[in-house]
Structures
1.
Amino acid sequence: MTDVTEGVAEGVTELRIDFAACDGHGACTGLLPELLVADDWGFPRVRSGGRRALVPPELARAAREAQRCCPVLALRVAPRGAGG
């Protein structure tokens, strides 16, 4: 069995958006504008594209706050390579 975190730098976290759960409240884009931008309907998009963004260490606290403030729990901040 291969470790999913093999080859991943320790301490690297990733922000994931669950678009099925998201209602477009916009709290996350306000708290984390460095990584997220709102689309025309208010739904978050990762600035670099896709559903996931690597979170630099200096933004880890803001990413956790965005996760905590999401009213529908559509964000997950976890170590890179963690399941989910």
2.
Amino acid sequence: MKSNSDMLSLPYENEFFDCVLSYHSIYHTNKKGLEKAISEVHRVLKKMENFM
């Protein structure tokens, strides 16, 4: 699934994905934004799955 959305507010339900891939994007923010982006990834990622 491809989507153009804000990494700080992902438009998906909790535990929606089996895997999340962030390629050359997540570091384009400040520390607070990075913490929020990682929090969003963990929110939409199914428990015990992969974040690459």
3.
Amino acid sequence: MPTHEAPDPSARPPRPSRPSPGGSGEPPRRTQAERRARAEAALLAAAARLVAEHGSAGVTLARVGEEAGFSRGLATHYFGSRAALLTRLQEEALSEAMAAAAPERSGSDPVEELCRFARACLDGVRRPTDLGRAFVVLGAEALAGSSELTDAVARLDARMRGWVAGVVRQGAADGQVRAGVDPDAYAVALVGLLKGLIVQAAAAPESFAVDLAGTEAERWIRLALTAP
């Protein structure tokens, strides 16, 4: 019959092992830079919701901090001023749109690339994010001259036009765009067309025919760049 030895009273109990980095213990503490990045992202998301629902007039730094679940003064600490926060929000909104619609040139056909750009812009109308809705609201306010962001919107529009012109210019150099197309003039026309469609959709989302608008925008892109 098996027997069990009695424990030695002089023996020390084993020390609990410490979790190794990346193991199953407590997660490592975030760095200050990581904490700041997460807080800024939360503040910008809160600002986007407020702008989308109330326009920029409904945004104050204190209200953004509260909406994000932080202190009233944190947005001031990170952004300094209301105008700086709204400008940053516009930049983030454009970056989101450009990342989806205008990625870095991949060497693909320029006409198809611009058609994808148009489709992505209009898809943003069909399935808007808070950031996308805020972008439309701020753009409309700037268009009416009622926003301190008028100059910022103009710079962001220039960035979009520059991207479109670059696609057309490279396509012309590669022989994929017909001769005689002015890349800069074409960029003005295409960005103006898309912004006009987006504003119409924002004004009457229930009745605006997104699919029809997208089809016609793509038809114009192809005709303008390839028709003899």
4.
Amino acid sequence: MIKKIPICFVMLFLFGGTFEKANAVERVIISSLPSELWYDNLFLLAYTIDGNWMAQRTFTIQVGLGGGESVLLYHFPDWYNDKFTPELFYDDLTGDHLKDIGVVLISGSGSGISTKEIHILNQIQDPNRRYEEVPVESINDAVKRLVKMERQGNLATILIGKRSMWSSF
């Protein structure tokens, strides 16, 4: 009888409490770019957010297949994607003849408008292949820097870089 009491308390402790919904977080492959070369396979992984299966956070980029030192992993705990599948690119984006990684995340959306966050990982060889994230200027900052407008009477001049356009109204 004495042995049964501790077992009952243990059972009551384990199974007698209230069952609350567990915060299930799942790490999934969000996007991938397969290649015939094992070291050129790209995978974009992230954790899904509980209660919003379309949103992801804490991203990892995996470059290469297999295990050990041949696979490159880059972690980005502050990246967030609100809806839809992020876009993944693998091309020479900087003109240095080395393939870079581009990731486009949806940071917000609604009413037919979406805001996107662009991340570029520039490939560097020194002598090993590796990637470093480079800053990307926001669209608003680029427009403020590159676009100038001037109005004289009913003629408006818009200067974009070295090109100009005129319009009368």
